[in-house]
Write a structure and sequence with these properties.
With about 250 residues, the chain is of the alpha/beta class. A five-stranded parallel β-sheet has the order 2-1-3-4-5, with helices on both faces. Strands 6-7-8-10-9 form a five-stranded antiparallel β-sheet.
């Protein structure tokens, strides 16, 4: 079954671009479009789509109110915000939507995210990592055994690089234990490391001599997206998303 999508954006060209991208990807059906918030909420109430792609800067109703109406009208519908500006209350919005993407991001990432949230997560697993030097090895073993159990061996090599960096950062710089989480959908493997520490990972300038600071560049290269989010009550969540199938760049072959 295709993922049924409603597009809510007051810019016609943006809706056309999204509609075209979803058609080329395949597996989606755009069942409705709206240029105003009230119309978007009405479509959600009548069509009950799998996903609503929502622009917050609509001309008639504030983004919070549109989101509230969509949630009331169709509680099962997932909402992904596709916004031209980074909202000051992004933390609140993130708690109430399944995704938040700025319009300057790669369109392929948005489509990957829509596919991920539109499909039910196939598998989910967690592992507690103590603050100890051998926790990175524990994380790597957990990732390998879990992906093999999920018949996703093609992801093992990239996932091991990503989890090694994220777990090492948490253990080394947050000075606390952490939790490793894996979620596998039809298109994406999401790797999360949550801790209660204060340190934040930051990519360092590229260097041919310095040993430290290279790992996050590898994470960025292997992932469709990665980032960090503050956690209520303190701490942070660092995440990365790996595609289940990688398109080879012809310039690199």
């Amino acid at each position: 079954m295709p993922i049924r999508v409603v597009l809510v954006d007051d810019v016609v060209d943006v809706r056309r671009l999204l509609r075209t991208a979803l058609r080329f990807r395949g597996g989606f059906e755009v069942v409705g479009e709206a240029g105003e918030g009230a119309e978007g909420a009405h479509l959600a109430s009548t069509l009950h789509p799998d996903v609503v792609v929502l622009d917050l800067g609509l001309p008639d109703i504030a983004g919070h109110e549109v989101l509230r109406r969509i949630r009331e009208a169709s509680p099962e519908t997932k909402v992904v915000v596709f916004s031209g500006t980074d909202s000051a209350d992004r933390a609140w919005i993130r708690e109430h939507v399944e995704g938040f993407v700025l319009k300057d991001a790669e369109l392929d990432y948005l489509v990957d995210l829509l596919e991920s949230v539109g499909r039910e997560v196939e598998n989910h697993a967690t592992c507690s990592l103590p603050q100890a030097l051998d926790s990175v090895g524990l994380a790597r073993r957990f990732v390998r055994s879990t992906l093999e159990e999920w018949d996703a061996e093609q992801l093992v090599d990239d996932a091991l690089v990503v989890v090694s960096e994220l777990a090492a950062n948490a253990i080394t710089h947050a000075y606390c234990s952490c939790e490793l989480r894996l979620s596998l959908s039809s298109s994406i493997l999401r790797v999360e490391v949550a801790d209660s520490g204060l340190g934040a990972p930051e990519p360092q300038p590229r260097s041919s001599t310095r040993e430290h600071g290279r790992g996050l560049h590898l994470v960025a290269a292997l992932s469709t997206a990665w980032g960090m989010e503050a956690v209520d009550g303190g701490g942070k969540l660092v995440w990365a998303e790996l595609p289940r199938s990688r398109v080879t760049d012809p310039l690199l072959t």
